[in-house]
Amino acid sequence: MPKSFVKYNGFTFPDRSNIRVNSNFVYDGAGRTVIGTRYVLTVSTIITDDAATLTDLKTSGTIVEDIRKKLSLPGKTLEIHHDGFAVGPLQINLGQSSPRDIEWGPKPRVLSWVPIGDTMSCEVVWECEFMLKECESGGHDGVKEFNYSVAFSMDSMGFTVRRISGHISIANTRVDGNSNDNTIVHNIDTYRDFVVIEKPANFMRTTADWEVSEDRSSARFT
After folding, report:
1. Residue 183 class from Cβ within 10 Å (0-12 exposed, 13-18 middle, 19+ buried)?
2. Among 9, 50, 71, 102, which is most buried by a count of CB atoms within 10 Å?
3. Are 13 and 113 in contact (CB under 8 A)?
């Protein structure tokens, strides 16, 4: 096994592949704090069948077809073994004790290939995005963001309507990077009782809205 390599969903990229990682710090809606780091991993390499001959039926196209499905599935285990990126391997979604993506990833974004030398080899570029929670407490669950704004409307008699609108989101991940289980682990609905905003004296609450996102990881409230 080479010292520097990338492995995703059971497929290990060849040794001496070109590995590039970009990181973007994601801020909350208020722009006050970082809620996670979004990484974009790009791997470019040459895929070839070392045992192939001109009479073989198995070509690089067949090999790429074998790995294409592995590299296109989201939420699988991702391993980055590279001393220039982290001390020791970065293993994502490998188990409950390993770092886990907090937005249903890793998410493959690009897979391109260009035939080289007729059909005997292929240049492959693969791009994958993942997001990690890297605060001091670590972990991969719990509240990721909670912010709200306040607006007041006053009529000519001085009667006031106070409207509070906000957003809450949580870290969410898949059950296991090695399985096809898409069960929702954490549901934002379980955090509804955490959004408690007290009424001022002599105020009466008239309406309350709670709108859940499609991935069950966030909600908007009014």
Report:
1. exposed
2. 102
3. no
Residues 6+ positions from 97 with CB-CB distance below 8 Å: none
| The dihedral sign for the CA sequence 217, 11, 90, 72 | negative
Cα torsion 183, 184, 186, 188 to 10°: value is -160
Tell me, what amino acid is at 192? Answer: R
C-alpha separations of 215 from 95, 211, 218 in Å:
22, 12, 8
- Please give the backbone phi and psi of residue 66, each rounded to the nearest 5 degrees, phi first: -65, -35
Q: Tokens for 146, please give them.
A: 């909670």
pLDDT single digits (tens) 74-97: 999 999 987 777 666 888 888 777
Q: What is the pLDDT of residues 20-79, one digit of tens each?
A: 999 999 999 999 999 999 999 999 988 876 544 444 444 555 666 778 888 999 999 999
| 107 touches 92 (CB < 8 A) | no
Amino acid, single-letter form, for residue 105: G
Question: Rounded to two decimals, what is the model's pTM?
Answer: 0.81
Terminal Cα distance for the chain, rounded: 54
Amino acid present at 74: P
Task: Tell me how far apart the alpha carbons of residues 105 and 89 are, in angstroms, rounded to a whole number.
Answer: 18
User: How, if at all, do strands 90-92 and 78-81 pair?
Assistant: antiparallel
Cα maximum dimension of the chain: 91
